[in-house]
Amino acid sequence: MAQGGSYLSPEGYEKLRKELENLKTVKRKKLSRAIGEARAHGDISENAEYDAAKEAQGLNEKKIAELEHRLATAQIIDEEKMSKDEVLIGATVKLKDIDSGEELEYMLVAEEEADYAQNKISITSPVGSGLANHKKGDVVEIKVPAGVLKYKILGISR
What single string gives the DSSP state of each residue in 123-139? Predict the structure, then answer.
């Protein structure tokens, strides 16, 4: 993998690519128009509207550069080549909380794709990294800020 890169699912890669395209086309044009309108209001040395538009343009360009770098250095996860019996990025893990008996299911994803509302947790989060490389049947203890979680891995799927 390229220096500083990360793993992305094909869906995550496509989502970032579409976001980049939107920033480069739609948002860039909108900000350029806003700068032109602010410039038309007269003296730009004391024009807060112009300053705000230029700052927004700078932030947009920074975000474009970050996304371009992230996409250039990312490796797309090939599910076919991943172990099916080990908790790795891209796996969906069914767990049983040893203390409460509650069953949970999480998909381990890259940080960019994490969405707790959809049960997608980052492989680099405390829970994600604590589950990584374990197998079905393993009991895992994970230290989190609130204490220690104890999970039994009931199943792993892709």
Answer: TTSHHHHHHTT-BTT-E
Nearest 5°: phi and psi at 23?
Answer: -65, -35
Residue type for 94, please? K
46 φ, ψ (degrees, to nearest 5): -125, 40
**pTM (2 d.p.):** 0.63
Cβ contacts of 38 within 8 Å, gap of 6 or more: 44, 47, 49, 50, 52, 53
Domains of the chain and any CATH numbers = 7-76 (1.10.287.180), 79-157 (3.10.50.30)
**CA-based R_g, the chain, Å:** 22
Q: What is the pLDDT of residues 21-70, one digit of tens each?
A: 999 999 999 999 999 888 887 777 777 888 899 999 999 999 999 999 98
Rounded Cα distance, 45 and 17, in Å = 37
Rounded to whole angstroms, the Cα distance separating 128 from 91 reads: 11
- Identify whether the C-beta of residue 7 lies closer than 8 Å to the C-beta of residue 110: yes
